[in-house]
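wait is this the right file?? whatever heres the structure
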């Protein structure tokens, strides 16, 4: 049996100085992947300081398309 449809998640890594900047960059990547009119669920999101840059953060955000 061939499975053609299954849930797919997308994990993106973005950097930014503020939570809003991080959200905007992550959502832009997810919409580019799933399609600009897609409704998205955020499965998880974690941010941490980006090494030596104390005012920048790296975040990993996991998205899934709403069924």
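ok assuming it is, sequence goes like this
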């Amino acid at each position: 049996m061939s499975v053609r449809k299954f849930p797919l998640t997308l994990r993106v890594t973005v950097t930014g100085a503020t939570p809003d900047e991080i959200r905007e960059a992550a959502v832009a990547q997810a919409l580019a992947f799933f399609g600009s009119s897609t409704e998205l669920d955020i499965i998880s999101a974690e941010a941490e300081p980006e090494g030596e840059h104390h005012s920048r953060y790296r975040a990993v955000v996991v998205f899934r398309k709403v069924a």
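The longest strand covers residues 53-65. so i think its the right one actually
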